[in-house]
Specification:
Elements (H helix, E strand, L loop, with lengths): L22 H8 L7 H13 L2 H22 L5 E5 L9 H8 L4 E6 L2 H10 L7 E6 L5 H8 L10 E5 L11 H10 L6 E7 L6 H11 L11 H5 L6 E2 L5 E2 L18 E7 L2
Parallel strand pairs: 1-2, 1-4, 2-3, 4-5
Antiparallel strand pairs: 5-8, 6-8, 7-8
Amino acid sequence: MTGETPPTGHVPASGIDASVPHAARMWNYWLGGKDYYDVDRVAGDQFSQTFPDIVHIARLSRHLLARIVRHLVNEAGVRQFLDIGTGLPTVDNTHEVAQRADPSCRVVYVDNDPLVLAHARALLVGTPEGATDYVHADLRDAGAIVSAAARTLDLDRPVALMLMGIVGYVTDEEGAHDLVRGLVDALPSGSYLALWDGVNLVTGEALDQAQDDYNSGGGVPYNLRTPERFAAFFDGMDLVEPGVVSLPLWRPDLDPLAPMEEVDALCGVARKR
């Protein structure tokens, strides 16, 4: 798969719809990858023309994931990760960061995109000391996810539940908060929830317009929550400092090239009591 329309007669892998944009492929495009179709490039360019900061947010989200995973391994002592909404493999995936810190870490990825499935089997290979697995399932099917994850993870020991840029695809009316709570409830005390999602903090109409244009284009709609509704995902848990903040402000690395201004996305990490 390249960033070009497949040649005439090409049939995408089973279940892949190359006629409508897909978020995982758009993010791959914004991150400089090659695993997207023309429809994703066009939608990605349209979104970024209306809201240019989306490319910056995409890159910030990768740095954030690495900081969170390093903290959970090195400071919180976590050795197991359940990463739901994996997206297409790119630089510093969860298992790579975790197993650099401790090769014994065990990671289960979950996604419902057939293209992610095809790449995960080939690319998400962990260390001999640890384990890496992939589950093809939808975020909404929590029971199936937990059951499949138990083949690789010891659910009697703490697990870090990673929901990075994914819960916006489930509305409050669909029970997003109950869904996340159900996943957390299936994990033992001492587990962690790490979550980020888009929130219209600073941009206003440009982000709303870009999101509305994408949502009307045939892809799975993404919903921007208020900061209060985002923070509610951590109710009943103990937030890790600095709490709920914009992506670049969560335990930032000392990087003079990385501006510390807020962006239109919030994150948080919390421990289950």
